[in-house]
Design a protein that fits this description.
Jelly Rolls, four-stranded antiparallel β-sheet, 2 domains
Length: 339
């Protein structure tokens, strides 16, 4: 996902814009029974956040926004120990959650759905400019899921371990594209014809319907440890995608562009990378960048900023941060050890 780094909104600027908008009353929450809405600051873009609290431990989060400039956030996320079910209806973004299971570096694309359980983690998010983003998220407390019974034998092992209390590790699990049934239910939810208590009952029924469809999709999806049904031509295309990333470290294509270049859909590309190479597409890209940076650091004539630029980082600070995540030391410390 290429970013116009000259115009990028940093975390500090983002927070300052929100503080200014709050102080002048531009983005105050508007309450209506169990619903709350607020617009995003006009200096950032256009759009709104919409939260519907159906019950304690069950809520809907709808976000629709478009940023005027590229945005890069780096903050501490607290998921409050709830299961989060996401449906991405429009727009693409890149997410990095260092240290979580399965997909710590990924691109979330329109039409995709995912399940994640994240208590506390660092979150690095990249949003392109002038692209409409729309998503629906469902937050569910684990105790509410347990109220349906403790026999989760027909669900995925990942979900079963979480519900049964055998594992509470942070994870993110991308699923296949939203099914037609999911898309229909999402539209019914977004265009609810009712009001008051009946609206809450209707929305709760749709939330449970979406969770059932998603849990069923997760149970039927092969785990990453199961051999996928790839044709020889698919394998060739996955290796071609790998070569493209190796060749274009300083200006890699987005996930969708890469998929189009090699003739695969984005889901098969992501699935194939995990199976063949043991990592996500962007995880592999970062590994290649760090390996090249290690070689360049042996040349003392190159500054850290020059190396960062050569391997595709927007700034020296971003490069140093990524290098430390991979190598457990700064680029300068690595250079001192090697030279």
């Amino acid at each position: 996902m290429p970013l116009d780094t000259a115009r990028i909104i940093t975390e500090a600027e983002y927070n300052a814009i929100w503080e200014e908008a709050n102080a002048c009353g531009e983005v105050l929450w508007q309450w209506n029974d169990v619903e709350q809405r607020r617009a995003i600051p006009k200096r950032l873009g256009q759009g709104e956040e919409w939260i519907i609290d159906l019950h304690p431990g069950l809520s809907i989060h709808i976000a629709t926004y478009q940023y005027w400039r590229p945005l890069c956030l780096d903050y501490h996320y607290n998921g409050e120990g709830m299961l989060l079910s996401n449906f991405y209806l429009a727009g693409d973004r890149r997410m990095i959650n260092p240290g979580i299971q399965l997909e710590e570096d990924r691109e979330e694309t329109a039409g995709e759905t995912c399940l994640c359980y994240i208590k506390e983690v660092r979150s690095i998010e990249y949003f392109p400019a002038e692209q409409i983003h729309k998503s629906v998220g469902i937050k569910t407390d684990l105790e509410r899921l347990k109220s349906f019974g403790m026999n989760w034998d027909n669900t995925s092992s990942l979900l079963r371990s979480l519900i049964e209390g055998k594992s509470a590790k942070n994870f993110h699990q991308s699923l296949n594209q939203s099914t037609p049934a999911m898309q229909q239910t999402l539209q019914q939810m977004l265009n609810c014809p009712y009001h008051g208590v009946i609206k809450r009952m209707y929305l709760e029924s749709k939330v449970l319907e979406l969770l059932v469809l998603q849990f069923h999709q997760l149970a039927g999806q092969n785990s990453y440890n199961t051999i996928p049904n790839f044709r020889p031509t698919d394998i060739e295309r996955l290796h071609l995608a790998k070569e493209i990333l190796q060749r274009d470290l300083d200006g890699p294509p987005s996930l969708l562009d890469l998929a189009r270049q090699v003739g695969l859909n984005d889901y098969k590309l992501k699935r194939g990378f995990r199976y063949l190479f043991g990592t996500t597409v962007f995880g592999y890209l970062q590994t290649c960048r760090i390996k090249q940076a290690q070689e360049l650091l042996c040349d003392r004539e190159l500054s850290i900023a020059e190396i960062a630029h050569r391997v595709g980082y927007a700034s020296a600070s971003r490069f140093c941060d990524a290098f430390k995540r991979h190598m457990n030391m700064t680029p300068s410390a690595y250079r001192r050890r090697r030279i």
